[in-house]
Amino acid sequence: MKKVFSLVLVLMLTLSVSACAGGQGGAEKSPSSADPEEYASWTKDMWMDANDKQQTEVVEKVFIELGEYAMDGYAEKFEKAKEDPEMKETMDDSITKMKDTIIQYFGKNPDSTIGEMIEGSKKAIEEEDLLGEEE
Predict the structure, then answer these.
(1) I need a labelling partner for 82 at 20 to 30 A (CA). Which of 34, 61, 76, 92 fits?
(2) Contacts of 10 (CB under 8 A, 6+ apart)
(3) DSSP states of 17-62 as a string?
(4) Greater confidence, 12 or 72?
(5) Residue whose C-alpha is closest to residue 87's, from 27, 2, 21, 14
(6) Residue 84 pLDDT exceeds 80
(7) Radius of gyration in angstroms for the set of CA atoms belonging to the chain, rounded to a whole number
(8) Phi-psi region of 73 (alpha: psi -120 to 50; beta: other; left: phi over 0)
(9) How far is CA 118 from CA 18, 84, 87, in A?
(10) What pLDDT is recorded for position 4?
């Protein structure tokens, strides 16, 4: 469980860096309904119109997508960590912080999408060698 939590923290840091660095902008217009299954296309307006439950679903999907990018089997470990009473408070806090990070990202990149934020985060993971790969 500590490994999952550590990776969540790394992902939050990476997303924060991505939020500060700025996106590519120029996102296409997305559908008006905020479907968590289509989170990569979410725009700032879709994020702001979504309810707390939808936003939480999206944050969890972002954690899982980036976690799987960084570590095979992360999704399963993430789901187990969510069910662990000792980890619940930590996970809830991480989700809240990620929601704040997404709001910051959209504040600096109002024409971007969550998918663009994720791609920027993947680049940051690679550039900072956060995957711990040996050359």
Answers:
(1) 34
(2) 70, 130
(3) HHHHH-----PPPPPSS--GGGGGG--HHHHHHS-HHHHHHHHHHH
(4) 72
(5) 2
(6) yes
(7) 14
(8) left
(9) 8, 27, 24
(10) 60
